[in-house]
Amino acid sequence: MKAFGRLARRIGGVQVGLALGTGAALGHATIGVLKVLKREGIPVDMVAGTSMGSLIAGCYAAGYEPEEIEELALRIDQSWVYENLFWDLTIPRSGLFAGDTLLRFIRSYMGSREFVDMEIPFACVAADIETGEEVVLRQGRVAEAIRASCGL
Over 60: is that where the pLDDT of 81 sits? Predict the structure, then answer.
């Protein structure tokens, strides 16, 4: 039924797209936006994000409720980052962290979902490490794409 409503809004030219940005504090703020949209009955037809925003957007697109996403975000505090990511440091080639710990964390929520499996169309933005150019990820495994977007 959600897909039908999304199609009707698309045909009518009235769609809601949500773009979520970077940063943990901003990530927490966007969860509040998701709660308000839900409370007011405003459907989101597509969602995209970068860095922390890609994790939140990905969870939302996968069907997680804003309250569940908030619980996830609260798990990622400074102590979690230190305890889990600090020891994942690597020689900078594709980022400061090897990313294995972060990828495992993301997979605990996304599993093996691919972009085509998402309940809401989803994209995430990363940067090409060699050129610094923006790369929009829309296919393949979602967890790996979010990990690329969160690359530190």
Answer: no
3-state SS, one letter per residue, for the chain: CHHHHHHHHHHHCCCCEEEECCCHHHHHHHHHHHHHHHHCCCCCCEEEEECHHHHHHHHHHHCCCHHHHHHHHHHCCHHHHHHHHHHHECCCCCCCECCHHHHHHHHHHHCCCEHHHCCCCEEEEEECCCCCCEEEECCCEHHHHHHHHCCC
Copy the structure tokens of residue 74: 């609260």
Say what the pLDDT of residue 84 is.
55
pLDDT 10s digits, 97-132: 456 778 888 999 999 999 999 999 999 999 988 898
Q: Where are the domains of the chain?
A: 2-149
Query: Taking the model in full, what pTM does it have?
Result: 0.81
Q: Which CATH class is domain 2-149?
A: alpha beta
